[in-house]
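Consider this one:
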Amino acid sequence: MSKAVKAPSLWDALLPIALLVTLLAMSVYLYGSDSSYGANQIALLLASGLALIVGLKNGHSWLELEKGIIDGITMSLNAVLILLAVGALIGAFILSGTVPAMIYLGLKLLDPSYFYAATCLICCIVSVSIGSSWTTAGTIGVALIGVAQTMGLSPAITAGAIISGAYFGDKISPLSDTTNLAPAVAGSELFTHIRHLLWTTTPSILIALIVFVIFGLTGQHKAVSEDTLQASLDLLSSTFDISWYVLIPVVLLFVMAVKKVPAFPSIFIAALIGGLFAVLFQQSVILKFVGEFQGGEGWALLKGVWSVLASGYTSATGNAAVDELLSRGGMSSMLNTIWLIICAMVFGASLEKTGLLQVVVNGILRIARGTASLVTATVLSCIGTNIIAADQYISIVLPGRMFKAEFERRGLAPENLSRTLEDAGTITSVLIPWNTCGAFMAGTLGVPTLTYLPYAIFNLLNPLVAITYALFNVKLRRLTDEELALLRAI
C-alpha cells in the first residue's frame, strides 16, 4: 500500500527558495561575474536537494521524484541542442569570413555616437523578420559585439541593446514560438494578441531607443583613433576574404527561419554551410589555423572545419584585440551554459513535482483582489517562475493556466492575459543567469547576465509598463455580455 502524499505548506515551498536565494547571493559575492562557472550550479543542486527532502517528507517516493527530474531535464534538451548548434555556427561563421565581414561593414557604417541605438534597431528588424531572439543574437549580435569591442564601446551596453531589440522582435513577430504560445495558453487569437501587445511594447522600445541614444551621445565609450580603426579594417581584409558572397550563409539562415524550419536543424545546417564557404573562400585561413599537417591539403581543410565546429576558432593575427575578438565559438564553448541549464531544470522540476511551485503561485493568487493587483500578480508570477523553473515556456504556461479562469471570472478579455504573459514571462527570462535564455545570451554574446542586465532597458521596462497600464486601467479590454455568456456556456 502506497504512502499518502501530504499537501505541502507555504513554509515547505519557501524553504528551498530561501536557500537558493541565499546561496546565489553568496555565489555572486564570492565569485562575481564568474559565479555562473560552477558556483551557481552548486547552489541550484543544493536547493534542489532540500526541495526533494521536503517532497520525501510529504510522502513522495524517490522514484516518482527522480522521474520528475528526468522529465524536467528532458524539457531542456531542445535548448541544449540549439546551444550546441549555435556554438558550431559561431565558429563556422568566423572561419568562413561571415562574422569578420559583418564586423568590417559595421566598422565602416556605424558611428559610436549612435551605435547603441542602431544596434537595438537592427536587432528589432532582424528579430521581427525571423521571430527568434536566439538566432538574432547568435548571428547579428555576435558581429555587433565584435564591432563594439573594436570601437572601444561597452560590451555590456551593446549586449543590452542587442537583447532589447532581439526580444522586441521575438515578442511581436507572428513567427515567434512564444508569440504563438501565449495566446494559445490564454485562449486569445494570435493577431488580436499581437495588436494588444503593441500598446505596452511600443512605448517600452521607444524609451529604450531614447536611452541608447543618450548613452551614445554622452560618451559611454573610450575614444579609438581613426588609425586604430583603420588598422583593424586592414587586418580583417588581409586575413579574410571580405566579399559580399561570404554573407550568403547568414542570408540562408534567415531564409530558413522565415520558412519556419525548426531552430536546431536550421542553425546546424547554416553552420555546415559556413564550413563549406570556409573551404571555398578561406583556404589560407584554415591552413594557418591547422598548422603543420602531414595528410595533404584536402584533409587539412576538413580537419580545420571539423575542429572549429567542435572547439571554435583561435585567431593568431598578432593583434591582441582582433585575436580576442575572433577566438570564439565551437560546441565545447557552450558546455558550461548547458551545465547551468541542466542544474536549473533539476531545481525547477524538483519544485514542480513536489507541488511546492503550485503553493507559491496559489499564495500569490490569494492576494490579488483588484484588476491592477491581478495583473501585477501575473507579472510577478511569471518573473518568479522564470527564476524558479528557469525556463521561459514554463513561465508562460504555468501562470497562464493558473490565472486564465480568474481573468475570465473578472470579465477581462483573454488578450489581456496573453499580453501580460509576454510582458513578463518572455521578456524577463533573459535577465536570470540560470534561466535557459539568460544562460544562452551570456554564452553567445560573451557578456555575463548580471553585467548586461542593467542595460537590457526594454526587458526591464516592459513589465513596469504592463503594471502601469493596469494601475490606470489603460487598454484592458473587457468582455462583452455576449462573450461572457458564450464562455459560461462552454
